[in-house]
Amino acid sequence: MGIQNFPAALQPIIQQGFLEREFQDQIESELGFRQIARREVFPNKIGETVTKTRPGLKAPVTTPITPSSNTNLDNGLSPSTWTVEQYQLAIAMYGDTIDLNTVTNRVGIVEQFLQNAKTNGIQAAQSLDRLARNALFNAYLGGNTRVRVTLGATGPTISVDDVRGFQQVFVNGQLTAVSGTNTMAVLVNGDPYTLTAVAVDGSNVSTAPGGVSGTLTFSGNVTVADGTALNTVTAYNAGAGVAPFILRPNGRGNTSAIVGTDLLTMGSALDGVAYLRRNGVPTINGMYNFYLDPVSARQFFADPDFKQLFQGATAAAKEFRMGRVVELVDMRIIPTTEAYVQNLGSVTVRRPILCGAEALVEGDFEGIGATDVAPADSIIDIVDGIAQVTREPLDRLQQIIAQSWYWIGGFTAPTDQTVNTNIVPTASASYYKRAVCFEHAG
């Protein structure tokens, strides 16, 4: 639409492009979890969910062909194939708006108009960053929980703090709901049980960030000793740990076991790097991104191993002058205030996370900004996949302008179940391999 439909007092502002510049500056200045996502276009007219397929590889051949069997049309060879795994990416719409009355705010019209755009930009950037964070932790905190209520007597069902990571198991490359047919092996207090059903509580009482409390039902009875409150429960299918790797100081089995002296160390961070390296996880421009809040960073900088690394060079090192690390020992330290912080009794638990490339996938709906999605009587700017919509006054007095933003898309954490020890000898059995979550006191 032409700018002549706007009040004359506002036309010079729109002509100069000030509004778009304000919005874009806020999007670009935000550092956070969205940076690690691989951006993909979510096509039109395919529904709200798309299934992504990731092919696996074939195991290397180290046995020579026997000369005596090298006959006939098959030369003694038996056909083999590669495997696949699938994950889903779902999209939804997010957005917000601000109204501006051009009459009641006439004295400060320019400042408020631009301030609205700036505020919308900050909100949009933070919203997407938090959606990315939630998707990342939702995957990488799964399969690790604890018994919530002690069993009164031996029985097949236990209450746990979080059922994420226990609800689905891979069957022929597809994540399928756990059932009596599609079972999952689970360790309860270190003892193996066969999981056959998962139920979510009607009222969520989970203490985990984004957690979902519920019950786990097994094919046999759980002993009272194993079903005692605070005991560790871990997904452990096919004789190997499929739960994401969570690093806790001093070998703590679950979050509730962390005590005030369990601090973040450089050694544990290097253990996280080693885990990603042995799973063949690619880096992000040569480094793994390590997201941590200021308290976690303070512990990291105070660790003796870190101090020794810069011993004798503290006056010149930018890491000490600036109070933060940019790049160090295969890690790119990124301070964030969006990290999960949890008060658990007398202990505050913090959760830094170390991420490799494509730990997240972001789907941006390709119809954002199209005239059949947004009204035609608006000025629409698309900045970093987010639509900024400035609508002309439509009220009877032609006074109220609407300044809005919206984004249609979603985030998902893809799996790497096909990467096993046959393909990468040092690989873990975890479904999710591209990030390592740390839990420590602080």
Automatic annotation (TrEMBL):
Ranges annotated as biased composition (Polar residues): 63-77
Region (Disordered): 55-77
UniProt-recorded name of the protein: DUF4043 domain-containing protein
Record organism: Dyella halodurans
